[in-house]
Every structure is written in C-alpha cells, then in structure tokens.
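Batch job 17 of 40 flagged for manual review because the log was empty.
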Amino acid sequence: MSEFARTRNSYDGSEKSKRLYPPLPEPLEVGTYDNHTHLEIADGDEPLSVVEHLEMMRQVNMLGAVQVGVTVESSKYSAELADREPMLLAAVAIHPNEAPLYGSLKELDVAISEIADLARLPRVRAVGETGLDYFRTEGEEALSMQQHSFEQHIAIAKEFDLALQIHDRDAHADVVATLLRMGAPERTVFHCYSGDLELAQICKENGWFLSFSGNVTFKKNQHLRDSLLAVNPGQLLIETDAPFLTPEPLRGRPNAPYLVPHTLRFIAALMEWSHNDLAIQLNKNTENVYGSWSEGLS
C-alpha cells in the first residue's frame, strides 16, 4: 500500500486517526522548498521514516528541505543526513532552550565549538535554530547563557558566511537589539515568523528574511498575515517546522514537508498571486539564502 493510501484510508475522524499523517495534497505544478524541518522528531501514531518523508515530498513535487539541528547530537545527525541525501541541506545549532541546560558556560562553549566544526561542512548551509526564547526560559543565569549562545552562533554564521536561522519567541526587541549590536549575517532568517507589523518593518529595512509556517493559516494570526503582506516578496520564505504547526484544515495532525503545498496555496491566495509565480519567487529567495541543493555532495 502506498503512503498516500495508508494515510488517506486510515483516517476516520477518531481520536487515534487524528494522530496519523494527513493525505498527500495535490502536487505543485512548480515545486518548492521547505526551509526548516525536523525529520528526526517522530510524531503521530505511525511516525514516518526519512525515506518515507522524501518519497512523499517527491510525490507532491517538493524540491528539497533544510533539516535543522537543535542540539549537538541532532546537528550531527542533520549534517550526516544532508551529506548523503540530495534533497536535504542542514542547519546546525544549539536551540536557545537547550543552552541553559549545560552545567556551566565552559561546558556550553565546548558544545558551541562542536557546532562550529559542523559549520565547516559543505552541506551545512545555515546556523540555526538559535536565538532567544522568553516563553520557556526564565531566570537571570539561564537567560544569560541563552544570550551568550545566541551571540556565539551569530559569530559562527558570519565566520563561515552561512545563513542564520533565528528562533524568536516573546523576545523580539532583544533579538533585534542583538543583531544590530553584533551585526547580522548577510542572510538572516526569522524562522517561523511570529512578530507583528513593527517587527516586519524592521526586517524589511534590514533585508532580513521572514519564514512563514502553517500557523499563518490559523484564524487568530491576522498579525502574521499583515506582516507577510508588508514586506517585499523577495524577503519571504516558506517552511513547516515539522512535525509542528500543521496548516489548516489539518491542524492537530502531524506536519511534514510534503504538506508545504497547503501553506503555499494559502499564501498565494492572500497575496493574490498564482501558485506558480509564488513558488518561483520562493525558490529564488531560498536559493539566495542557502545556495544550490546540488552542490557539496560526497
């Protein structure tokens, strides 16, 4: 049975079936990229393997994805996976909520040095996700370690001329202040953009990229839709942050890169663009940020 048949035929509206991956959407005529995903994070009652993820991406004409690390271990995994899978590039980092879990600043710096080593690899095209998170991290010492980690990751991205993928949760002002103080990398991406029009205007003025995930489709998130329309089309990226933030009307079920077409079609309607024109613009933006998927393979 194909993966499409398995997901489609097994859904019956029950609580259990809500944890199954959704069916394949209609394939895109012009394919595009998912610029932020976590294939190693299993979700749902029947998690997909990497092979299944990639096959389902091909079936809907997805061109590739950026596999993103959040720890030293998942960053190594991401780099190794991208080295052998032509459809994947890697981003490597210690997530802001992971940084305070180290016993000392010295231990954190040792871990950050391992991220720097990974950043030298040809299929690693971004440092991320890094940034600040004031939703899950509290306390002066923990926040200080988070800030230190963010600054060190910025330095790594600049040293190796890599894109920077920012995790910004309830920390807009301090994220912006840090970028301006240190000097943002040439290609800076606000992953899973969560800001308002004020932040969007700051991004527009600085040439930073805004990456939109499935939550742009959620009814309550008008501020995201307003932000998307306020910036230049050349600053837009699309992502899943899979297995999280599944777009409507599939919210509550696991997300995956093959579901990008749902979000792309929603954004195209919002912008009053054709699906194909939006995909072409997104592809240009994505390749400007991360380079070619065909380069750097072993």
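Reviewer: the log was empty due to a logging misconfiguration, but the result itself is present. The radius of gyration is 18 Å. Unflagging and moving on to job 18.
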